[in-house]
């Protein structure tokens, strides 16, 4: 009986850590992955380095080309995009 009473505080601490730290972080990571997967040409984005630009080309699964000034294009890794400022509307088919 004493062994069970000694384990209960550890179980409670783990449960609290899970709901306060681990679960919200997993949710935030999933939202970021969905945002990055939904990038399309014309979206205005901000990179983790603070560069603001417009997506000019979605190259492949891991790379995006961003226009940061007229005629100046930069290739960046998708995961370095921290937020989408303005989304473009999908083209009507």
TrEMBL record:
It comes from the Bacteria. Keywords: Cell membrane, Membrane, Protein transport, Translocation, Transmembrane, Transmembrane helix, Transport. Its main location: membrane. It is a single-pass membrane protein. The keyword Protein biosynthesis does not apply. The chain crosses the membrane at residues 6-22. The keyword Manganese does not apply. It is found in: Cell membrane. Coiled coil: none annotated. Part of the SecDF-YidC-YajC translocase complex. The SecDF-YidC-YajC translocase forms a supercomplex with SecYEG, called the holo-translocon (HTL). The SecYEG-SecDF-YajC-YidC holo-translocon (HTL) protein secretase/insertase is a supercomplex required for protein secretion, insertion of proteins into membranes, and assembly of membrane protein complexes. While the SecYEG complex is essential for assembly of a number of proteins and complexes, the SecDF-YajC-YidC subcomplex facilitates these functions. Belongs to the YajC family. This is Sec translocon accessory complex subunit YajC. It comes from Marivivens donghaensis.
């Amino acid at each position: 009986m004493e062994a069970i009473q000694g384990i209960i505080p550890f179980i409670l601490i783990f449960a609290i850590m899970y709901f306060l730290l681990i679960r919200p972080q997993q949710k935030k990571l999933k939202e970021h992955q969905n945002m990055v997967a939904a990038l399309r040409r014309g979206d205005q984005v901000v990179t983790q380095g603070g560069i603001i630009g417009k997506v000019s080309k979605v190259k492949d699964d891991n790379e995006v080309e961003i226009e940061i000034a007229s005629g100046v294009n930069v290739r960046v890794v998708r995961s370095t995009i921290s937020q989408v400022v303005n989304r473009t509307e999908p083209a009507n088919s």
